[in-house]
Design brief:
By secondary structure, the protein is mainly beta. Helix content is 0%, strand content 45%. It has strands at 2-3, 9-11, 21-24, 35-36, 42-44, 48-51, 67-70, 77-84, 89-95, 102-106, 115-119, 126-132, 137-142, 146-151, 156-162, 168-173, 180-184.
């Protein structure tokens, strides 16, 4: 799965010289992150969610994946997102004029009502997200080097840590969810 600066989102398969499908053509805003959900039947690029019966069509199949939902996550910038649990819930990281920088979206309701909760954790915007499913924690990094831990069960911020002096660019959670590691631009 590839996302480009020209806004295109394309899927390739090992052993094929050409793309097997194009979810979004060029001419859109740049793609900041692409991910598959855990079940492998949804693909999102930060602003769009795609759902189709099979993401991996055979070479003879000409079915174009159906666009499932679209919404503007953040009105200034969208930087990252993660699928939460069943993948009908998505968390996004970015910056909005009202300082919402971590948002939870429910994809099973209409796009106008899909914003479940918004958090104001990073005053200059959130840059990256990680999800710890066993503990139901969302971990976000911000532009000013802070890391925020959010308890999704209670929908509240648990901790705000000054982890770096420059923007947090990466977060990884170990498989046992005992530790998480952050990386920055410094």
């Amino acid at each position: 799965l590839t996302g480009a600066q020209d806004g295109s989102v394309r899927m390739f398969e090992w052993g094929h010289a050409q793309q097997i499908t194009c979810f979004r053509s060029s001419g859109n805003s740049r793609v900041t992150r692409v991910r598959f959900n855990y079940q492998g039947n949804k693909v999102a690029d930060g602003m769009f969610l795609y759902l189709c019966s099979s993401l991996f069509p055979s070479p003879q199949c000409t079915v174009i994946p159906r666009l499932f939902a679209t919404w503007q996550c953040h009105n200034k910038t969208a930087n990252d997102f993660v699928f939460i649990s069943s993948s009908s819930l998505i968390a996004t990281a970015g910056l909005s004029s009202d300082n919402r920088n971590i948002c939870l979206w429910d994809t099973l309701v209409s796009p106008t009502n899909s914003l479940v909760h918004a958090f104001v954790c990073h005053d200059s915007g959130a840059t990256v997200l990680a999800y710890a499913p066993k503990h139901q924690l969302l971990i976000s990094g911000g532009r000013k080097g802070f890391t925020c831990v959010i308890d999704l069960r209670q929908k509240q911020q648990q901790q705000l840590l000054q982890s770096h002096d420059s923007p947090v660019k990466a977060i990884a959670v170990d498989p046992t969810e005992e530790y998480f590691v952050t990386g920055s631009a410094e």
